[in-house]
């Protein structure tokens, strides 16, 4: 059985977890925060989460893991059958990772762990997110799913990346991006309503609630 290492607070952990649930893959969750301990670096070379334990060894990086799952468990598929559309799906995922998650993550320490707010980051992150959102809108179809008519890995990735982005932009900027993006808001409602989306989001919220009680 595959073992998924990480914690439910991580949106990238949740991307992989939902992909496994959508595919009906049996797996065991192993609680493991990011770590620079040598024992964990042997599993995930950058010490990041998630990583998965397979019969052949460990794999890290969420997109690499998702590709492995797609090849080893092709049904149901989370990538289109057409080569061009598969590439477009990956393009959307990378856009969300680099230009939405990337900028928002600069404020993660402040929002989640109470670190001091960097004035430079505060000034730079919102314009970067606006630029990233404009790029995403040029790529996404929302017809009814991000990459077209079929629910795909792009929907899973964007759902959990936007969850992080919204959790950061609301408290820092008092800015609800969904108010300005009705197509995105409608899509998020559809995506979040899926059975496995609800399972993953509920597990993440449970961790957030526990952290809030401790603070």
UniProtKB/TrEMBL annotation:
Matches recorded under Gene3D superfamilies:
1.20.1050.10, Glutaredoxin (3.40.30.10)
Which residues does the UniProt record annotate as the domain GST C-terminal? 82-210
Q: Which GO terms describe its cellular component?
A: cytoplasm
Q: Which InterPro entries match?
A: Glutathione-S-Trfase_C-like, Glutathione-S-Trfase_C_sf, Glutathione_S-Trfase, Glutathione_S-Trfase_N, GST_C, GST_Omega/HSP26, Thioredoxin-like_sf
Any coiled-coil regions, as ranges: none
User: Locate the GST N-terminal domain: which residues?
Assistant: 1-77
Please name the PROSITE patterns in this protein's record: GST_CTER, GST_NTER
Note the PANTHER family from the entry. GLUTATHIONE S-TRANSFERASE OMEGA, PTHR43968
Query: What is the protein named?
Result: Glutathione S-transferase
């Amino acid at each position: 059985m595959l073992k998924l290492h990480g914690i439910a607070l991580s949106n990238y952990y949740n991307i992989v977890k939902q992909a496994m649930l959508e595919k009906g893959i049996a797996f065991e969750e192993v609680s493991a925060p990011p770590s620079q301990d040598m024992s964990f670096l042997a599993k995930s070379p950058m010490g990041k989460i998630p990583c998965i334990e397979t019969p052949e060894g460990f794999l890290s990086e969420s997109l690499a893991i998702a590709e492995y799952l797609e090849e080893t468990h092709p049904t149901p598929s989370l990538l289109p059958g057409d080569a061009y559309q598969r590439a477009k799906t990956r393009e959307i995922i990378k856009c969300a990772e680099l230009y939405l998650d990337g900028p928002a993550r600069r404020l993660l320490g402040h929002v989640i762990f109470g670190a001091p707010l960097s004035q430079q980051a505060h000034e730079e992150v919102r314009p970067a997110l606006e630029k990233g959102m404009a790029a995403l809108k040029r790529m996404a179809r929302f017809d009814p799913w991000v990459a077209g008519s079929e629910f795909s890995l792009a929907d899973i990735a964007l759902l959990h990346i936007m969850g992080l982005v919204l959790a950061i932009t609301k408290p820092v900027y008092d800015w609800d991006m969904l108010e300005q993006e009705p197509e995105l808001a409608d899509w998020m409602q559809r995506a979040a309503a899926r059975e496995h989306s609800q399972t993953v989001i509920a597990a993440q919220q449970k961790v957030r609630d526990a952290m809030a009680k401790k603070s």
